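Q: Give me a protein?
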Amino acid sequence: MASSRSPLAALATPKSIVIFGASPDRRSMGGVLTDNLIGGSYSGAVHLVNPKYRQVGKQTCHTNLAAVGCQVDLALIATPAESVGEILEQCGAARVKAAVIYSAGFSETGERGQQREAELKEIADRHHIRLLGPRAVGFLRPHLGVNAVPFQRAFAAGNLAFVSQSGAVCTGILDWVFADDFALSALFAPGNGCDLDLPEFLDFLARDVETQSILLYLEGPRDRRRFMSALRAAARMKPVVVVKSGRHPLSARVAGAHIGVVVGDDEVFDAALRRAGALRVRSIGDLFSAARALTSRQRPRGNRLAVVTNGGGPAVAAADEAAERGIHLARLGADTCAALAVRLPASWSMDNPVDILFDADPERFRLAIELCSADDGIDGTLVIISPSAFFDPPAVAQAIVQLALTEPKPLLACVIGEGSVREARQVLAAAGVPTFRTPESAVAAFAFMVDFVRHQELLLETPPAQMSHRAADVTTARAIVDQALRHGRVELDTAEGERLLAAFHIPLASASRKLGGKLREIRVALKNDPGFGPVIIVGEGGSAADIAHAGAVVLPPLNHRLIIDLFRQPAVTRLFEARMASPAISPPLLSQVLQRVSELACEMPCIDNLEINPLCGDGGQLYAESVRITLRPAGVATWRYGHMAICPYPLALESSFITRAGTSYRIRPILHEDATAFQMFIRRLSNRSRYCRFFSAAQELTPRELSIRTQIDYDREMLLIAVLTTADEQEEIVAEADYSVLPDDSTCEFGVAVADSFAGQGIGTRILQQLMEAARRRGLTRIVGQVLSDNDNMQALMESLGFSVGMTDEAQLLDVSRRL
């Protein structure tokens, strides 16, 4: 999406601001905002509106917006609720593009407030104004000098973005964390969030060059599917760390009442975050511990940690925390132990944790860290420094920094104490070494790194809806469901349920097996979550399911890699451990059934709940002994997989064709493993072709741009590639075409490029036709783009495909568009 079309462009990068409710009283919201913007480092124009004053400080204060007499990008509205509607009308007449509403008295106050908020939204939609709020805390953009929050303090510009659904949490964190340890690239606190909300913030921050990491404090996303899509896109580009309140039923009800949404099942939310590539932590303190850990360039390959310490007590605390977090204290290799034994005093611990004793000097620290880091059985090293008269803490810190510059594995530091070690802590933090005050928080941070790596691996998995070698009989399955719904039934009878399972090749237990009494039992369920769509649950079966209804949760679509990760969840691990004496239910057999249930989840949006209980085995196959299926009417999804939080790989968009020259090509959606081939395609384009495609002279894509284009969410964007199979059985990309869904969710913006040596063969026409078909299937109704005015070939292609061509404000660009 072009940055100029970002919903947050006018809000986050305003060239001029007007404050409604401006005041000389610094105890009022309008007074604080006036002081922040006029007295701060914002370089744009600031206009003041309040009929009570003619002047605030040295600046003129106007009676209304019309009196300002010049164009304004952003309005900050700090007036009583009943006046906000009229102010928004003023903004609409003056073509203001965005507004922040700080006023309370809207949906949080009951029916009248909800009506008032709806009226605001109608005014804003009519005038194309994007809203932050009502009841917003506001936003910060320190790099631009914009402080639009009720907090009178200068904030250092940094690389960490923070988004909070709680105003109180937001201001508390501003006063606490960002005082010295961290610096901000951006902060958004939307309050009621009736318009701009989490998806828009994530989209903006994902592409913001100042932001390196994103932290979220959530109580409950209002639109979970849009949130999931935006979260996956953001997590592909930079670390996203989430703390979510409402983990338990009571706190979830409190959180839901606070933000006015249904908070939902916490286990489902947890599963969604794993698939999104984000890291979830339990507390606000953990949020910033994780932020520290993920500033490191290094990532662990596994969970094997070495601890180097000059004190036994802190090492014990680290060991306890490692056990709690599932972190393995690695066994030192024989060569490592031998080398340490030669170089350390005889009374060293001779094991991990590596206790180098209280009188350790910087050289002893350096030696132990270096040897542990070189051990192939170790994935990361934690150094614990306790103050001592035998060494200079900054000198130890410098030794750690020097090692961290070349060390490929994560290196973390815990510096215990305060006054005597403050400088050492500053040296480490300045060099980007994750640094902590307690052993527990340092070990937790390493655990966060391990989890983050695993979640990033899951993010790359985008299976097709159906993967099994025997295709499901979807037509028969849908006919069964449709007939029941036509007759007003929301539950399938036993025979219908068994026929539906058979259509997806899930075996049923015969009468003889049911009577055998020798089978072991598991429960597999599919349920429709109100926000995230279908989720799959695996847990204890039979009568035990009535006692403990919980289990491991995963979002479809699934493949082998995702199912293996599911089997690592404690609830499933315990199931297999309890059945080790019998091979009746084995991981490979369960994997086959879960793959089929995943296919059913993808293809059958009308399934509300499906429960196979028990799922039994005889050592050779698994059987559904009993199944219960309830239905819901079809939703309003705009396309085949619109009911799912994670869009499957769109296998149906793959096709082959032969050009006029007789060469065979294949067109398919891009996959993340195409990154190298796609970069080669870009490099091989002529300078002219690259400029026509990207309006840039860059010779290749940056790693970030390459990630954006090859790791996509097929629901919000599409990139098709035309590939030619070479003599050595490799795929060469010869053309690409993509679209991005615009905020109205009915229009997409497209681009296309064909390799110069393959031009004139009709490949561009064919790939664009297939791209438009993909957009139609997605439910889009219009496709738009821009073409250089001197690109005659592209203009001819557009006209041949029925696009209309029009002028833009820029002489060198033409707008092209077409109904789909």
Remarks:
- The radius of gyration is 30 Å.
